[in-house]
Amino acid sequence: MVKSTATWRVARAAVIAACAIAITASFVVVLRQSRAATAAGTEVVRAERYGVVYLHPLTTFIGELVEAQSAAVRGEKVDVDKVRKALDSVSRADAGVGSVLGTRQRFIDLVDKVDGVLESNLTGRPAYDAYSDVMLLLTDLARRVADSSNLIHDPDLDSYYLMKAALEQLPTAIINAGRAADLVYLSGRGGRLSGEAEVQVAVARFGVAQAAEQISAGLNTSVDATERGELGANITPRLDAFRAAANAFAPSTMLAEFAQDVDGAVLAAAAHEVFVSALPLAHKLLTELDEVLALREASLASQGRSTTWSVVLAVVSVFVLAWMLLLGRRRTGVRDTVVARQRTRASLDSTDGLALGSVGDLRRLLDDDLIETGPRGRGRRGRGDAQ
User: Fold this and answer.
1) SS3 track for the chain
2) pLDDT tens track, the chain, 387 positions
3) Are 222 and 161 in contact (CB under 8 A)?
4) Is the residue at 356 inside a domain?
5) Domains in the chain: how many in total?
6) Which of 153, 172, 187, 208 is the most exposed place for a label (fewest CB within 10 A)?
7) What whole-number distance in Å separates Cα of residue 250 and Cα of residue 207?
């Protein structure tokens, strides 16, 4: 019976230990999956922030190249130092994160093309065409940055529309504004637009107006969706300035103007205002985008820590509970064993008392019998008989 009870205790302890190990293993699997998901999310956000690092100088370079194109088309002196300074900033960004984003070869091709255009000193239509080719390489590089950094694939509304405005819509507005002003100049100042030039200018100006509308709508969505309360207040002044410049460049009466002469100087000034208002807005949006991504990265890290501590506490609780169960069973078993031993000892003590009493009685009986049957006894009995 004792052996059976001990075997049952061992089996019960083994079952409790196995359950604790199984539960712990389950928690470990959950923890590993959670940490893997957190790590993957963190890597995505980090890549997006790399993209923001690259896009800041790239946006500046787009603006400087548009300004250089307009100067070259008009036969004015191109500020080569300013263009190269902007290009150097992109070069530093490419050296820092280009290998991660896979932009190295595209950037090298862009540098070669820019060097060729700046050294050619082209003017008029050849300058327009040459700079347009450079702009194609530049926009291709920007798309590569957006794709490889995952910015273009970001599903969150706040960061998506910030990216959309800063990466696509504002550069498009800057390029179209410069293109429209250059085409009007090439068609003849004070002349009436007609044919292909009229269509191209109309498309470019419409592109600016459309970009302004899309930017405004998208940023309103970002402000409504974000957890960053400062976003709306931070971007509103620059957004208002850009909207005003876009409306001046492409007013609602734009279509009626094609029945009149288009003043190239006025349009060029308006295009420059689009540039000087769009560029600060783009940088501000990129800064806000980085802040949103930094907040997301911190949230992922916090979730990872919370999950880790939750699993650790759960595992510790399981082992403490298992230990308490085992310890409680062990104490019960020890108490039962002690009680059984005490009962056995009491029983043995009672039996031993009875045995010792019987032996003592027997010894006294034997002693009495010896007394009665010994020589003295016999003498006493003889004397009695004799009498």
Assistant:
1) CHHHHHHHHHHHHHHHHHHHHHHHHHHHHHHHHHHHHHHHHHHHHHHHHHHHHHHHHHHHHHHHHHHHHHHHHCCCCCCHHHHHHHHHHHHHHHHHHHHHHCCHHHHHHHHHHHHHHHHHCCCHHHHHHHHHHHHHHHHHHHHHHHHHCCHHHCCCHHHHHHHHHHHHHHHHHHHHHHHHHHHHHHHCCCCCCCHHHHHHHHHHHHHHHHHHHHHHHHHHHHHHHCCCCCHHHHHHHHHHHHHHHHHHHCCCCHHHHHHCCCCHHHHHHHHHHHHHHHHHHHHHHHHHHHHHHHHHHHHHHHHHHHHHHHHHHHHHHHHHHHHHHHHHHHHHHHHHHHHHHHHHHHHHHHHHHHHHHHHHHHHHHHHHHHHHHCHHHHHHHHHHHHC
2) 445 655 666 666 666 667 767 776 766 666 666 666 666 667 778 888 999 999 999 999 999 999 999 999 999 999 999 999 999 999 999 999 999 999 999 999 999 999 999 999 999 999 999 999 999 999 999 999 999 988 888 788 888 899 999 988 999 999 999 999 998 888 875 556 667 777 888 888 888 999 999 999 999 998 888 888 888 889 999 999 999 999 999 886 665 555 456 777 888 899 999 999 999 999 999 999 888 888 877 776 766 666 666 666 666 666 666 666 666 555 555 455 555 555 656 555 554 544 445 545 545 544 555 445 444 444 444 444 443
3) yes
4) no
5) 1
6) 153
7) 9
- Evaluate whether residue 42 is within a structural domain: no
* Domain-located, residue 102: yes
Task: Let me know if residue 232 belongs to a domain.
Answer: yes
**Distance of alpha carbon 42 from alpha carbon 291, whole angstroms:** 15
Residue position matching structure tokens 């734009």? 254
The domain in which residue 292 lies consists of: 49-300
